[in-house]
Structures are given as C-alpha cells and as structure tokens.
Amino acid sequence: MFADICIVGAGPAAIACALHLIGCGLKIILVETGGTLYDPQAQEIGRTETGLRFGTVDCAYNTRQFGGNANAWLVDTGRSYRGVRLAPLTPADFEPRPGLADTGWPINFSDLNAFYRQAPRIFGLPSDSFDLEPWSGPDTPDLPVADGSVDTAMYMFGDGQVFTNDHRATLEKSEDVRILTHHTVTSLETPSGDTRVRSAVAVDRDGRKRRIVADQFILAGGGLGSTQLLLSSIADASLSIGPAAENVGRYFIDHPLLNGGEFFPSDRKLIDRMALYDLRTIGAAPVMGHLKLSDAALRRESLLNMSMIFLPRRNGWQVSETMNARQVAGFQAAIRLRGAIRDRRLPAAWDLVAGAVGIDGIARRLFSRVVSPTANLARGGWSKLPARQRARFDRFQILHVAEQAPHRDNRVMLGSERDATGLRRLTIDWQWHQSDQDKIMRGQQIFADALAGAGLGTFAIHKDGAGPSVVSSTTGHWMGLTRMSRSARDGVVDTNCRVHGTDNLYIASSSVFPTGGYANPTLTVVAISLRIADRLRRLYRRDLTEDAGKAIEATTDGQRADPQTSYSPKSHLDAGLPRPFSDD
To answer: What's the Rg (C-alpha) of the chain?
Structure first.
C-alpha cells in the first residue's frame, strides 16, 4: 500500500493533521487499531503490563478507536457529555526554570501562538480566545486578587462528537484520505544505513500483515502508543535513530489531581458573584474560569504550575468515593448505548454486558445528576440553581491539576508480556518525587496568601502527611516520553517534532512535551499537529494559501528552512512507484 503521508492513529492529533493536509495534492492514510465503535479487543491491545508506582491505576492505555480519546471525554457541557477541558500552556511553561532540571522547551509560546488560535475551530468552538475579557462582565467578575502571583484564566470545552462524527464524515468523503481501521502498526522499517523510514508494517485482527510505504510518517497514536511503537521498532532493529534512542521512554510526566482543601469566603455573598468560575455556555462556547499561578510567580520561585478549581459545597459534605474501573466502564457503556439508540442502530453486545455489570456505576451517576446534582470536574451549572438552593453553599472544595517536573528516571519500558499483535506491552516505572510535592505545596500556600491578602477568605489546605492530598495519581495525560530538544543527546524530536536522526518521521503527541504545565494537553497537541501539517505543506510546496503561508512562518523560530538541509520529497510517480492507495 502506498501514500504520500502515513499517519499512525486516528485520534484528535491525527485528525487535525489530516484535515489540514486535505486539498494540497497529497494522499494520506490514517491507520487505526480500532474501528468506529468501541471494541474491547482493540482496547486490550493498548493496555500496559503494569500500573503506576503510586495511586490506584492498575494499567494505562490510549483509547483505540476512531476519534481516540475523544470517545472517552466525559464533561457534561449542556450540549454534550463528551466535553474536554481546553487551555493553552502559558509563556512561562515553555521557559527553563532555575533549580528544575530539564525544564524548558526549545521553542517559545510565540512559535505555537498562530496554531493555538487555529486549534479551537478543530474542536467546533466559535471563539479562539482564552483571554478573560470576552467571558467576564459586570455580573460575572473575576476575583480581585491583585498581588501579581495569581491570575484568573479560562477553560473552553471542546466536543468529542466533532471528531467522532463531523470530522470523520469529512475525512471519509475526501478523495485525499483513506482510513484503515482494525490495523495496528507494529514496526517502522528503515533500510540499513538510511536516515528515512521506508515503510510501516500493520497487522490486522486476524494477524495478517500489510506493508505501508510512504514519503512521510506521523506517529499520532497517543503518548503511550507512539512511544511503544518507537521502542519496539528500535528493539527489533528495524528502526535506527542514533543517540536519541537512549531518551525514548524517559522523562515520563503526568498531571496528578489533588484535593486542595476548602475555601471559606469571608462574605457568603461572594459565592453568588462567582459564576465566572462555573461551567456555563456563553454564546455557543462552554467556558469556566479558574485560578492559576501567574507567570511572574513561576519565574520568581521556579514553581511547578497548577490550577485552582472551585466546586461549591455545604457544611457536612464529604469527599465522594471515586468509581472503580467496573463502574466507570458501565457508565461509559451507557453513553454508547444511548448513542446507538439515538443513531437507530443495534448496540454492541459488549456494551450491553458492560452496562449490566456496571449498573451501580450508572445508578450513581444518575443519582448525582438528577436526585442530588453536585458540581464536579465533569459537570457544572451550580451558578444557575435557584437562590434558595445556592444559599446552602457556604464554602468551596478546591481541586488542583498539578504539574510534575521531568525526571529522567521516570520512564516506560518494554515488558515481557505481548499483546495480540505481538507487540511487547509497556511497563511503567514512575514516582512522584518529594521535590515536586514541595513545589506544589508552596504553590498552594501562594494561593492561600493571595486570597487572604485580598480579603476574600481563607483557603484551608488539606494535606496527606507530609505531602498534598492525592485524588488521583494520574489524569491520563501521558507526556515527556519522546521529548522535544535541540539535540539528540537531550531528547527524541527536534523543534519541528521530527525524530532526531530521521528525515521523514514526526511525532504528533503529548509525548513530545518537555514539560506539561497544568493544562490538559489536548489543545497543545492539536496545535502541534497543525504545525507539523503546515511544515509538510511547505516541504511539498503545494497549494499553500496566504493564511497557511503566514502560519508556516512561525514554525521554525522565525527562520526559513536552510536550503542546504531542507528535504524536498519525491512523488511516488517520480520514484516509479504505483499510485497512492494502491494495494498492490
């Protein structure tokens, strides 16, 4: 099988790349392990051999299905149950922080800014602004914290159905794109002594192999999936990337979710003036405010970044027990069953089984939403409750999404167990260093001092022994494993997300993040994917619009490609190969 560009994966990153490449004369193949519907067999392929060193996660995986993790997003935005929390990294997130080893990106915020502005459209959002001004107003003011250490920032919420339905329809209609489902890429092949990937080997559900030959390859199979494929190809000696190979799988980072404690307003009326910090829809954009550490504070104290999310509570509330894996699976199956009914198709048998086995999880969610609605990470709306119901609230539960520093000893490796395709599963060796916890507790104190100093109230910080109180050791944001660097000695991909030591292999994944800030990585992953696609459009010099050309100018630190080192790919016709999409 032949094409100009082979994209491994069909999640948001892969879809963004493919959408941006349509119409420029290239033939594109997306290779996806799963299909368009949930398939337990496909999910099992992506499972890790071990869980995390701390916390209660038994294993980790990326969703193997068209749309990727967009199928697993669970925020109720009022329009969809498939919302995802979006925010950009801040300028300071890209900068080295003294005293924190291996921090800093080799690109700046300005290098991604043009693509940050394009990315919200990929999520179906009508606005590209994450600034405070469009969303606050006289009736929804931000908290008057003016000491310069804390800022109010905004989340917008994308809709997973845009990827699983709308974008899928667009790609299926395009003559430039072919979607190859139920195939898992198991190796990348580089001829001996060559610096280009020649082909990728994909295995279908029955074990049959198919070789895909392409000019360019983009790994967009998620933070773990892309890393596993690289590690496997290197271990099998089918791929050689030189010194960068020593860094593949290292510097693993995630976003621990913390129970920060309780915020007690000095004036009960403040709660009624905090609608900005509730999840609500303005125009057609679901948004929610939160506090974050300012860039000035990050730079001044070399802090790890973190958010502060407000959830209203009343006296006597208790931290609810999280659902176990069986209950979560049951609730997710219920969402898919509802989708099948809506689309007038037969539900999958495994969804009926999972729903029955996890019926108590479904019941818990229904009780929470209908009988006793409670604001949490997956739902808001508390500011729209009748005044008599809001009057019960006298405090806020505080949740933090926290940054981890990159540590070379935090890593994933190939284990001994193999999945159905023959790939060795990943094992995870990862811990939360005490130095990271100390930085996070310092950040919590900065929040407390800022709120108290402004006369807004008291933030009673909750701790677990000598460290923060952990709700979950992971939010499923797998980052750092193929980190971006200027040199192959320090990372895996260069400033254009091309793997060091290769000419035609790119990674569009959160695994390229050197640091992760506090923001959900999805928006930045899509921005990076658009940046890769723009670079490829320039390399092929085909059908560049004026707007795309301007965006491309921002992809190489403000410098044009060196004509001595830039690669101008040959078409398949020039190479004497069959036409793209040929199955010969």
So the answer is: 24
530's tokens: 């658009």
pLDDT (tens digit per residue) in 162-196: 999 999 999 999 999 999 999 999 999 998 878 99
In Å, how far are 272, 291, 516 from 87, measured between CA atoms? 25, 12, 12
Q: If DSSP codes are grouped into helix, strand and coil, which group holds residue 13?
A: helix
* pLDDT digit string, tens, across residues 479-507: 999 999 999 999 999 999 999 999 999 99
How far does Cα 6 stand from its chain's mean position?
21
Spatial distance between the Cα atoms of 59 and 427, rounded to a whole number of angstroms: 9
End-to-end CA distance of the chain: 6
pLDDT in tens, 547-571: 444 443 433 333 333 322 232 333 3
**Cβ atoms of residues 472 and 55 within 8 Å:** yes
- Cβ(242)–Cβ(491) below 8 Å: no
CA distance 446 to 301: 11
Q: What is the mean pLDDT of residues 499-521?
A: 97
Amino acid identity at 336? R
Q: What number of CA atoms fall less than 13 Å from residue 450's CA on the CB side?
A: 22
Torsion of CA 259, 261, 267, 270, to 10 degrees: -10
The answer to whether 171 and 15 are in contact (CB under 8 A) is yes
Q: What are 29's strand-pairing partners?
A: 6, 178
- Cα-flanking dihedrals φ and ψ of residue 577, to 5°? -95, 165
260 contacts 445 by C-beta, under 8 angstroms:
no
The encoded tokens of residue 441 equal: 């507790």
372 DSSP 8-state letter: S
What Å distances lie between residue 362 and 11, 103, 330, CA to CA? Answer: 26, 42, 6
Distances in Å between the Cα of 566 and the Cα atoms of 217, 504, 533, 561 are 16, 11, 16, 6
Q: Tell which residue, 158, 247, 118, 117, has the closest CA to residue 507.
A: 247
| Cα–Cα distances in angstroms (integers) from residue 10 to residues 203, 209, 254, 497, in the given order | 16, 19, 22, 18
Q: Give 62's pLDDT tier (boundaries 50, 70, 90).
A: confident
Cα(491)–Cα(498) distance, rounded to whole angstroms? 11
Residue 475 tokens read as: 């939010």
Q: By the 8 A CB rule, do 202 and 31 touch? A: yes
Dist. CA 149–CA 132, nearest whole Å: 16
Tell me the three state secondary structure of residue 160.
Answer: helix
255 Cβ contact list (under 8 Å, min separation 6): 401, 402, 403, 404, 474, 475, 477, 516, 518, 520
Are 581 and 27 spatial neighbours (Cβ–Cβ below 8 Å)? yes
Q: 3-state SS of the chain: helix, strand, coil percent to 5?
A: 30, 25, 45
